[in-house]
Amino acid sequence: MNSAFLRGFLNQTWRTSILVPLKSYVPQSPVLLNLNCSRNTSFFNKLPAEDIWRGVTAVSNAGKKRGRGKGTGKKTAKDLNRGQTIGLGKKNFVWPGLNSPIIRGNDLIQQQPLAENLEREKNIIKLRDSMGGFRMMKLNPIDRGWSGSKMPGRSIGPPDAVGDEEFKSFDTRVLENKIVFIMKGNMGRKRRYSVLSVTGNGNGLAGFSVAKAPEVRTALRKSKNRAGQKLINIDLCENRTVYHDFYTGFGKTKIFCFKKPEGYGLVCHRAIQTICKVVGIKDLYAKIEGSTNLQHIVKAFFIGLMRQKSYQTIANETNLHVVEFQKATKGIAQIQAVPVTTEATNKPPNRIIDFMQYTLGNKIVLQKKKIAPFYVNTKGHTLYQVKQERFRNQAKVRLHKLVNQ
Length: 405
Prior knowledge:
Layout: H1 3-10, E1 18-20, E2 31-33, H2 43-46, H3 49-57, H4 61-65, E3 93-94, E4 103-104, E5 107-108, E6 112-113, H5 120-130, E7 171-184, E8 188-200, E9 205-213, H6 216-228, E10 232-233, E11 246-250, E12 253-259, E13 266-267, H7 270-279, E14 284-290, H8 294-306, H9 311-318, E15 322-325, E16 333-337, H10 355-359, H11 379-387, H12 394-404
Parallel strand pairs: 13-14
Antiparallel strand pairs: 1-2, 3-6, 4-5, 7-8, 8-9, 9-10, 11-12, 12-14, 15-16
């Protein structure tokens, strides 16, 4: 055998164990050459097509920190592989093993040309141009979150059904959606998404949870379903507000909640507003002091809702009647609860309990003094007070006379 032919044969990409007769040896005794099998590998045949395409179009983490690639998440690159078929091109051909089977029945299929498709290239270009433009997805104003199209404040539907149990009347709202990192010994800095959501049926049944996952959709689904598994029953007064004013806190967060009359609305932090809508509270005023960490606000507010006491419970604990005065009823007293009288608790306590101080946990809300206007000590204001002295309290006197008639 020619040595040049042997050298070229051995330098092929695929190498196997072969039997080659050499001139230096006896022709009747062939020599066994044991060669290693090897394959030329590179970056392009180690990774799948999606990873290679992402590496071309995406931006590294270092580049993102420097402000590069701000529009990469919004614009989608054209998929040049769409519409392409293996084995077909300008001149169509039957390739056994690519676009047709090698054996069909008992017949071995041979390579053969096909009829030319002149419109094929135009159709592929038209298909690419149709997916080139990017359009922002428009959201219904009702479905928008706290700030535009971002996730916090948006609804993600009811939790998934568990067996035969379905959450038809429930609605889940996202309160927090952020990226968190964790250091792994083998993978280094690993990124995950953390989602805080709250779900409820609008009738006193609600729950919240935090879930983490490598993908946003997975984290949203886990948080939604986990919140449905941790439901809390919350008592509502008149199916619209809380029973009484209360103080609650978690960590460095302090919340003062106040009961309000019908039609007042929700005047509070946006996270508390979202929780109230999910729970079914329609009238409430809440004041936050200290930290505004979202998770602390949610935990503190749920702790306060669970620590509420009904009117009957308050009457039994204090051994006093719970009477309510409202401006809407022109100050007429309404008895809300009467204590259960027994021999042990028949005697009333010696001290008068302030309802506000009792429900706020022996805390008093600081009422800041109003700043006096600049004209209080002027000569003109003093003269005005002297002239109005004889008309003082006339409106109240008239009302008192009307009541006593």
